[in-house]
Design goal:
The chain is mostly beta strands.
Length: about 575
């Protein structure tokens, strides 16, 4: 019996054929790409070989690059094409100081340019990626080695811990030479770039960079920096000019600008019902909350709940105080409530012991109540009496600490401690001087060079506190700093109290006859509204020797006091 093909047979057969053809096509595509890649690489090798052959055929004295050291007519960067592939050809020619006859000043014949090293690197694009190949050859002079009137330029690159930085990019330029020098090279494993045969000249400009690192270099004389350090380099015949540059990984600086903490109070003296959200069988009379009714007819039980207390930028809850009176047989109990959906529940006893039953006397310590879990609270009073009289609540207050509210769009000046020279008056010229602006949330984050930074607020503000202090950014690390700002005072003093380089908190700072103030967590105290005058400043703390000094206050003034044991 002969059975015909069903639809399922056709579908399965077609799928198998499709799978075979897709596999064959993928293999064919891969083979084409492999052939193309191999062809491009073979072309690159041919370009390298041709370039080296041409360079080997050149006279030794002419073997150099345009703008390079040694100078010559060979382009540092050129392009060519072969078999439809475009190649970039980079040529680097350098003198080599061979250790066989001594190096640097120890060279036996005083000439460090023993021979030339020629490197040709070819790069091209293959499937969206940059591929490269290179080759190196050496060229020696036919006669006695010579620097041809030049000297040696030696650049050393190290990090914050004085370790070599291999792979750093070193740019050397000198526009005063003909032809002008413009060389870009990479530091070796010892972080060193060596250029024997550098033409005699002043004005060598050096720039050192590496991805993700800070930068360094030499600087021109300018009006703002008449004494640059380091300035441009000079090369003297037969001498070695050495310059060292420090770079390291960029760090991250995260700034916040906030208002200071301050004690605030929700208070109701019961002159009206304005601060009450709900009442039952109570009324206000004679400046007090009482049971509703009249003598002999007072309600037996009454309740009142305050409006919801939801401070902005709440830092911590402090305490509840209230004034109440009750005769024997009467009671008045105060509780703290938390919103729960559409209603309210008492703050749990596990958070505030005794709150479930209520408090008959104050103050109620709220310091252990979490502001993140309970950012909103309400006061509640339950009054009970015997009809003939009524307890009375004359006032209540919830005291809390608020502040550190974000100050958005605040302009802050950052000045690094590293300098690149000095003004005519000898004032250091900072390497880093920039203005940054916090965002709508009062925050700013960016990468910066490893350094110690001084921060200055805008004219409308004074620095109340910088925490932590000092602002130091380490290589590759993040530093979070909070700037607490207050409205500008014509004359103010910020005192930084330290011991062994660390801030001292809870130190008492006294100035003149003014009330003393205490240093905060970061060892700082701010005293505003002073006169431009000289003051006697005294700082003390148990366990330390008191320190006294005279300070002249004018405008924004800062001083540091060192405490000793």
């Amino acid at each position: 019996m002969v059975r015909g093909m069903t639809l399922i047979d056709v579908v399965v057969g077609s799928g198998i054929i499709l799978l075979v053809f897709v596999s064959l096509f993928s293999a064919f595509t891969l083979a084409v790409e492999l052939a193309s890649t191999t062809k491009a690489r073979a072309g690159a090798v041919s370009v390298v070989a041709d370039s080296l052959e041409r360079l080997r055929a050149m006279p030794y004295d002419e073997l150099g690059t345009l703008g390079g050291i040694p100078a010559g007519m060979v382009p540092q960067v050129a392009t060519t094409s072969l078999n439809g592939v475009f190649y970039t050809v980079r040529t680097l020619i350098q003198y080599v100081d061979d250790p066989a006859d001594g190096t640097g000043t120890g060279d036996t014949n005083g000439v460090s340019a023993d021979y030339k090293r020629v490197k040709v690197e070819v790069t091209w694009l293959a499937r969206g990626r940059t591929e490269s190949t290179s080759a190196v050859t050496l060229a020696a002079p036919r006669g006695v080695e010579t620097l041809a009137g030049g000297g040696t330029l030696r650049i050393v690159v190290f990090d914050a811990l004085a370790r070599p930085v291999p792979g750093a990019r070193v740019s050397i330029t000198n526009a005063s030479l003909m032809p002008p020098v413009a060389v870009n090279v990479t530091a070796d494993d010892s972080g060193t770039v060596l250029f024997p045969g550098s033409p005699q000249s002043t004005g060598y400009a050096i720039s050192v960079t590496k991805d993700g690192y800070s930068s360094a270099g030499t600087y021109d004389v300018s009006t703002g920096n008449p004494s640059p350090n380091p300035g441009r380099l000079s090369v003297v015949p037969t001498q070695t000019t050495t310059a060292s540059f420090a770079i390291d990984r960029l760090g991250t600086l995260a700034l916040r600008t906030v208002s200071p903490e301050e004690v605030q109070t929700f208070e109701d003296s019961f002159t009206s019902l304005s601060f009450l959200a709900a009442t039952s069988s109570v009324s206000i009379s004679d400046g007090a909350l009482r049971l509703a009714g009249t003598a002999g007819q007072y309600a037996l039980v009454g309740e009142a709940r305050s409006i919801l207390i939801a401070p902005t930028a709440l830092a911590r809850w402090s305490r509840v105080e209230f004034s109440a009176s009750a005769l024997p047989g009467e009671s008045l109990r105060v509780r703290l409530l938390v919103p729960n959906g559409e209603g309210f529940l008492p703050l749990p006893d596990s958070v505030l012991p005794g709150n479930g039953a209520g408090f008959t006397t104050g103050p109620i310590d709220m310091s252990g109540v979490s502001t993140s879990t309970y950012p909103r609270l309400a006061l509640s009073a339950v009054l009970t009496g015997e009809a003939v009289s009524t307890p009375a609540l004359t006032d209540w207050r919830l005291i809390y600490v608020a502040g550190r509210a974000p100050l958005p769009n605040t302009l802050v000046s950052l000045v690094g401690a590293k300098s690149i020279g000095a003004t005519l008056l000898g004032t250091p010229v900072p390497k880093t001087l920039r203005s940054v602006t916090t965002d709508a949330a009062g925050a700013f984050t960016d990468t910066v060079e490893w350094d110690a930074y001084t921060v200055t607020p805008p004219e409308a503000f004074d620095l109340f506190e910088v925490c932590p202090f000092p602002v130091v950014v380490q290589p590759g690390e993040r530093t979070d700093t909070t700037l607490t700002l207050v409205p500008r005072s014509p004359h103010s003093l910020r005192v930084l109290v330290t011991h062994a380089g660390l801030p001292v908190r809870d130190a008492t700072v006294s100035i003149g006859a003014l009330p003393p103030v205490m240093t905060g967590d970061c060892g700082q105290a701010y005293i505003p509204q002073l006169s431009a005058d000289r003051y006697t400043l005294t700082v003390s703390k148990v366990g330390y020797t008191p320190a006294t000094q005279t300070v002249s206050v004018s405008g924004r003034t800062e001083t540091t006091v060192l405490l000793t044991n």
